[in-house]
Each structure stands twice: as C-alpha cells, then as structure tokens.
Amino acid sequence: DGGITQSPKYLFRKEGQNVTLSCEQNLNHDAMYWYRQDPGQGLRLIYYSQIVNDFQKGDIAEGYSVSREKKESFPLTVTSAQKNPTAFYLCASSTSGGETDTQYFGPGTRLTVL
Amino acid sequence: AQSVTQLGSHVSVSEGALVLLRCNYSSSVPPYLFWYVQYPNQGLQLLLKYTTGATLVKGINGFEAEFKKSETSFHLTKPSAHMSDAAEYFCAVSVGKNTGFQKLVFGTGTRLLVSP
C-alpha cells in the first residue's frame, strides 16, 4: 500500500537532548512538509522541501533542522534549542508542491519532553 | 497576509441532523481552499478542495462546501450527521500563488461532536 509512515508513534525526550523523527513516503511525491500541532492552534509549518537536497524554512523553524537526501525520506530533528518541543508532529507529502496539490499526511509522532 | 478563521471550536449535533462548520478566509487574490478531517491521534485526510470552476464542491463521506467570494466563506455542510463523523475539521487556504509552491495556512479547527 502506498502512503506515509512516521516513526516512532510516541517519543519521550529529556530536556537538552536532540531527537530525530522519521518520515518516509512511497508515493513518489516530490514535495514533503513538516507541521507542528498544538491544542487549539491548528497546524503550523516547520519546514518544507520541493525537491531532493533542497528545503525551506516554514513559519516556526527555530530549534528544528531537516535533511532531504532521498526523495522518500524527510527526517526532522528537534534540537535542544527548541524551547517548547512537546507537541504532535505531522509529516505530509504532495505530488509537486503545486498550489492546488492535495497534501497527504502521515499518522504523526507525539513528542513529550520530560 | 492570507488567513483562515473557523467560527466555533466545538460544534455539537444530534445524529441525523444537519452539520454546518464555518470557515472564512482573507486573501488578496482568488484563493485555493481545502477542508481536512482528523480523527483522534491520526493524521489529516482531505475531504474536499476548491481550486477553480464550480463553486459547490462535493467531497468524501457526503460532505460538501460552497465557495462564496462575496462572503469570503467556504462553509462545510453535510445533510445528515453520522456518529462516525465525530472528528476535528480544519479549513485551510493555499498561500503559494506568488511562488508557485503551495503553503497551507490552517484554521484552528472545529471539533464536531455527534450525539445519539
């Protein structure tokens, strides 16, 4: 089945640690996105990538980093510089990133900082 | 800047009743508009989208939405609610018109509660 997988489903981190969230897609999509979801705030864009080896900051990129070495993969690292990392993180992909594209979402990773 | 407002963080209906979830947008150019649904602890799934053409858009699970430019609205409706419709619904506008690349701006969501 084609789709987007995110792992792990739940992640616990101690303060001061970096953690990496995995996102893989087998839809042959060029564009990929990372969002953060907090209760009552909707989704906010962290980073996006339209093509391999290229990515752009979204609205809340501070304290996060990404890489896009393969078309299928777009991992997100939450660094210790992110002041309030506890949230639900969603990865998405779309065909080309075009303005009318449908974004397809993974099941999410819930990160909790202890 | 383009933005989306969803009126009502929670909407409660009885099974079989009309569902109406409100979405208003602000945009300096004709917008592309989307409705997504999220079930608990899951990702989002597209219900429907408006790009061009017919202003009444039909989506999955019996939902539809009408683009009204004069009212800057894109409200989501369903004639008869099912228990399985209980979820959170997000309206979004695409803001990529000048770059050719899609960035979605989401509303804060409306949680639909369906009672027997």
Write a brief caption for the model:
Chain A is mostly beta strands.
Explain how this protein is built.
The complex is a heterodimer of chains A (114) and B (116). By secondary structure, chain A is mainly beta. Chain A is built from no helices and eleven strands. In chain A, the strands form two sheets. In chain A, strands 2, 4, 5, 6, 9, 10 and 11 form a seven-stranded mixed β-sheet that branches. Chain A has a four-stranded antiparallel β-sheet with strand order 1-3-8-7, with no helix packed on it. Chain A is globular, with a radius of gyration of 13 Å. Chain A starts with a strand and ends with a strand. Chain B is mostly beta strands. Chain B is 0% helix and 51% strand. In chain B, the strands form three sheets. In chain B, strands 2, 5, 6, 10, 11 and 12 form a six-stranded mixed β-sheet that branches. In chain B, strands 3-9-8-7 form a four-stranded antiparallel β-sheet, with no helix packed on it. In chain B, 37% of the residues are buried.
